[in-house]
UniProtKB/TrEMBL annotation:
Residues 175-302 form the GGDEF domain. NCBIfam families: GGDEF. The chain crosses the membrane at residues 21-45, 57-79, 86-103, 123-144. One of its GO terms (cellular component) is plasma membrane. Its EC number is 2.7.7.65. This is diguanylate cyclase. GO terms for molecular function: diguanylate cyclase activity.
C-alpha cells in the first residue's frame, strides 16, 4: 500500500468517527445506513488489495455521507414524539454501534489490525446492542401505552377497556366484580355556554377524579364523549356503591368556580356468571339511563 495514499485516506475517514448512520421512521423500523457504508467500504478494500491513485476521494465521500447520516438521525429522532430519556438511549446505542462498524471498516480499509482494536470493536458492539435494545423496548412500551390511552383524559380508551373486560369474563374468576357506567350531566350546556375549552377541562377533571379513586386492579376508560366506564374488581355491589358515591362527591368538589356544579348520572351492576361483554354493558347502560330519567346526579343499581 502506498504510504501517501494511506495517509490521505486516514485523514478523510477519521472525520466520520462517531457519525450515526441510522434513523427512525414513524412506523418504528430502523434503517442502518452505516451497515451499507461499512459493507461497501470493506468489500472495496478487499477487492482492491491496495489503494490506487485518487482513492482518497472515496474517503471524502464516506465522510460526507456519514455527516449527512448523523444529521438525518438526530433530526428524525428528534421529530418523533418520544420521551427524552428514550431518545437519548436510542441515540447512544446507535452511536456505539456506529463506532463498532467504523472500527471494522477502518481496520479493513487501512489494512491494519490488533487485539486491542478487535476487543474495542466487540465491546462497543455489545454495549451498543444492549443500549439500543433497551431504548427500543422503552419505545415500544411507550407506543403501546399511547395507543391504549385517551389523549385528553389520560384514562384508557374504549378499545383497551373492551379487551380488558373480555379477558376478565373469559377468566371467570370467583371474586366479585362490578361495572360502573357514568355520564356527565348537562355536558352539552357546558360546551354551548362556556366553550369547548371548558368542556375539555371538565373531561380532564373527571378523568383525574376517577384515577384518584381507582385501585391498582381497577380499569377505567372513556368510552365516548362524556361517558366513562370503570371495572371494579374484587368488590361487592355494596362496596362498589360506596366507591361510586365517593366519586360523585369528588366530582362536585372539583367543580371550577366559573362553571356550574358538576354532577354525573351513574349506573352500577355486578358481573353475573352468565354475562358476556354486551349483556354486562347493556345492563350497566340501562341503569345509567334510568338515573338520567330519575333526575340525574344519582346512582342506580341494577
Amino acid at each position: 500500500m502506498q504510504q501517501q495514499s494511506g495517509s490521505n485516506m486516514r485523514l478523510w475517514v477519521l472525520p466520520s468517527r462517531g457519525a450515526g448512520g441510522a434513523y427512525f421512521i414513524g412506523t418504528g423500523f430502523l434503517l442502518l445506513l452505516n451497515v451499507l457504508v461499512s459493507a461497501f467500504l470493506t468489500g472495496w478494500a478487499l477487492n482492491q488489495g491496495q489503494w490506487q491513485a485518487g482513492a482518497e476521494w472515496l474517503g471524502a465521500g464516506l465522510a460526507f455521507a456519514s455527516v449527512v447520516a448523523v444529521a438525518f438521525m438526530y433530526l428524525l429522532v428528534s421529530l418523533i414524539h418520544l420521551k427524552r430519556h428514550i431518545k437519548v438511549t436510542v441515540l447512544f446505542g446507535l452511536l456505539l454501534l456506529q463506532q463498532a462498524r467504523y472500527l471494522d471498516g477502518l481496520e479493513q480499509v487501512l489494512l491494519f489490525s490488533g487485539d486491542w482494536l478487535d476487543l474495542t470493536e466487540d465491546v462497543l458492539f455489545l454495549f451498543g446492542a444492549i443500549v439500543l435494545a433497551v431504548g427500543m423496548t422503552l419505545w415500544v412500551i411507550l407506543t403501546y401505552r399511547l395507543s391504549t390511552l385517551d389523549k385528553l383524559t389520560r384514562v384508557h380508551n374504549r378499545r383497551y377497556f373492551e379487551g380488558a373486560l373480555q379477558r376478565y369474563l373469559l377468566s371467570r374468576r370467583q371474586e366479585a366484580c362490578c361495572l360502573l357506567v357514568m355520564d356527565l350531566d348537562d355536558f352539552k350546556a357546558i360546551n354551548d355556554n362556556h366553550g369547548h375549552a371548558s368542556g375539555d377541562r371538565v373531561l380532564k377533571i373527571l378523568g383525574e377524579v376517577l384515577r384518584q379513586n381507582a385501585r391498582r386492579e381497577d380499569v377505567i376508560c372513556r368510552s365516548g364523549g362524556e361517558e366513562f366506564e370503570m371495572l371494579l374488581v374484587g368488590v361487592s355491589l355494596a362496596t362498589a356503591q360506596q366507591i361510586a358515591q365517593r366519586i360523585m362527591h369528588c366530582i362536585k368538589a372539583a367543580t371550577p368556580d366559573d362553571l356550574p356544579t358538576l354532577t354525573a348520572s351513574m349506573g352500577l351492576t355486578s358481573v353475573l356468571p352468565e354475562d358476556d361483554v354486551d349483556r354486562l354493558r347493556s345492563r350497566a347502560d340501562k341503569a345509567m339511563y334510568m338515573a338520567k330519567e330519575q333526575g340525574k346526579a344519582r346512582i342506580v343499581l341494577l
